[in-house]
């Protein structure tokens, strides 16, 4: 296992800032000692070789402070059946089955126009095949695949992906932990014919969850993983696994069902599969729009999980005063929030400097969230803000919240696109998704996915996010053996 690269270790590993969800935690005993060792081990990590270390390591993994690294399963290898849903994509099916090189594949033809061609390709690669008479959607196709397989672990990969034959073996070690319900690899964009879209998708694909492994749950840094590729424990899956009434967002719904039932879901960035990108701007934007249209259904089944922003009262007040040009008052409010934080952290070493750092990061994060809200779900208002930026100081500063993060991301992602093209595609991405959310809310007669929620002061928020990890502390979730 290795320490999460984004956590901050303070005061001789007695305090750690980070994890998933984010927390300020005080460490004691063997847990603190293990963090020190992991810090010295660096990116290469270390092997936990005693029951005590394994118990301490599991506590850190459960908090998202540390992550497993690639390794071999300690258990006997289990047969894993692979489900491949397909609709019409004969060439992609042939390429995927060629890359998998497995005899444990079940192809589910979801009503293709040329079912004989799909069947021929599947049989040529030694795969089994089940065919729907009509198109029922990806959720139904995966459910059919699950119903026609028997292995304890089930893999699924979309037909527009390609994968190394060993991608499943690289993930199954996670299931040595009986609480793991599902693990997903990184889904990386494959180069397409449209160089600009391909380059944008290389760093901003909706399916690529990034280079850092994560513990997945709503409200954490990574709230879901896509169903483009995953391995799941059959015993963890509800019946049916995917909600067939949802044509998009069914993967998010499954992940939240699993985590709400107490199962752990992991994203393993050490393992990756490739995913074809859309070459045409219109079809690319339409897909982004379709992702947004799942908002109302997801909100109905998982209320509150899609709240677009949760800024704190003091940060909103600070930003509002700054937009009005009252910088002295804004600095006063920011100072007050820092003092409240310092008091909440008074028992933590380096409390004053830590409070300043957390307050500043929180202000920046809330500013980015509000800027994204104006670019996405509230993009009609954002467009008005940009149009008024030439004549209004408030609009100019609000426009900075919308545009500045794009410049920062362009620099940090090292995109090969010029900044103007990058910003244009990013705004098109946000507008398309936001339009889908708006349309979904209008059809579903709800405003929840469009409505931000103000949280209390950092003092109250920090009280909820301060944890104490001692040797022998009970784990956050009890072991799960079935549903």
Assign the structural class, choosing from mainly alpha, mainly beta, alpha/beta, alpha+beta, or little secondary structure: alpha/beta
- What proportion of the residues is helical, as a percent range? 40-55%
On the 0-100 scale, what is the average pLDDT?
88
Q: Output the radius of gyration.
A: 24 Å
Beta-strand content: 15-25%
Annotation field: number of helices? 16
Major sheet attributes:
9 strands, mixed
What would your notes on this structure say?
With 483 residues, the chain is an alpha/beta fold. The chain folds into 3 domains: 2-69; 80-278, Spore Coat Polysaccharide Biosynthesis Protein SpsA, Chain A; 313-464, no CATH class. The chain has helices at residues 29-41, 51-62, 90-100, 115-124, 138-147, 195-204, 250-260, 281-292, 295-301, 313-323, 327-344, 351-375, 379-387, 393-412, 419-444, 458-464, and strands at 2-3, 8-10, 15-18, 23-27, 66-67, 80-86, 105-110, 128-132, 153-157, 161-162, 180-189, 214-216, 229-233, 264-275, 466-469. Strands 6, 7, 8, 9, 10, 11, 12, 13 and 14 form a 9-stranded mixed beta sheet that branches. Strands 2-3-4-15 form a 4-stranded mixed beta sheet. Helix 6 (195-204) crosses helix 15 (419-444) and helix 12 (351-375) packs across helix 13. The longest helix is centred in the last third of the chain and has 26 residues, at 419-444. It is globular, with a radius of gyration of 24 Å. Residues 470-483 have low confidence and may be disordered.
């Amino acid at each position: 296992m290795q320490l999460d690269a984004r956590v901050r270790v303070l005061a001789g590993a007695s305090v750690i800032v980070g994890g998933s969800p984010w927390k300020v935690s005080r460490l004691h005993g063997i847990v603190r000692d293990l963090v020190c060792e992991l810090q010295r081990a660096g990116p290469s990590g270390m092997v936990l070789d005693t029951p005590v270390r394994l118990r301490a390591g599991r506590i850190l993994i459960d908090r998202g402070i540390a992550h497993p690294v690639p390794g071999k399963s300690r258990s006997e290898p289990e047969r894993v059946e692979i489900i491949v849903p397909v609709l019409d994509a004969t060439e992609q099916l042939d390429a995927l089955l060629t890359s998998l090189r497995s005899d444990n594949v079940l192809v589910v033809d979801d009503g293709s126009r040329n079912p004989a061609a799909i069947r021929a390709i599947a049989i040529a690669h030694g795969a089994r095949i089940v065919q729907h008479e009509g198109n029922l959607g990806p959720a139904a196709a995966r459910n059919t695949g699950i119903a026609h397989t028997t292995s304890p672990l089930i893999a699924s990969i979309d037909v527009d992906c390609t994968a190394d034959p060993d991608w499943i073996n690289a993930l199954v070690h996670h299931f040595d932990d009986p609480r793991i319900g599902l693990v997903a690899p990184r889904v990386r964009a494959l180069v397409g014919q449209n160089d600009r879209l391909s380059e944008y998708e290389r760093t901003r694909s909706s399916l690529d969850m990034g280079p850092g492994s994560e513990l997945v749950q709503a409200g954490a840094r990574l709230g879901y993983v896509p169903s483009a590729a995953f391995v799941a424990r059959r015993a963890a899956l509800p019946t049916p696994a995917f909600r067939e009434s949802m044509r998009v967002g069914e993967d998010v719904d499954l992940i939240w069902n699993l985590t709400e039932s107490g199962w752990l879901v992991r994203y393993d960035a050490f393992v990756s599969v490739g995913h074809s990108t859309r070459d045409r701007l219109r079809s690319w934007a339409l897909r982004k729009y379709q992702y947004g249209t799942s908002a109302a259904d997801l909100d109905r089944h998982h209320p509150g999980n899609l709240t677009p922003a949760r800024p704190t009262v003091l940060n909103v007040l600070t930003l509002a005063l700054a937009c009005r040009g009252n910088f002295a008052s804004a600095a006063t409010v920011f100072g007050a929030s820092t003092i409240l934080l310092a008091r909440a952290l008074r028992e933590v070493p380096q409390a004053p400097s830590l409070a300043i750092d957390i307050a500043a990061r929180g202000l920046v994060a809330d500013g980015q969230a509000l800027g994204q809200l104006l670019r996405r779900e509230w993009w009609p208002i954002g467009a008005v803000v940009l149009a008024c930026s030439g004549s209004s100081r408030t609009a100019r500063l609000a426009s900075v919240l919308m545009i500045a993060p794009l410049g920062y991301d362009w620099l940090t992602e090292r995109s090969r696109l010029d900044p103007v093209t990058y910003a244009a595609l990013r705004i098109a991405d946000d507008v398309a998704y936001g339009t889908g959310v708006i349309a979904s809310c209008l059809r579903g007669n709800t405003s929840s996915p469009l409505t931000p929620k103000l949280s209390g002061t950092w003092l109250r928020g920090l009280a909820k996010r301060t944890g104490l990890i001692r040797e022998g502390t009970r784990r956050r979730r009890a072991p799960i053996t079935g549903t």
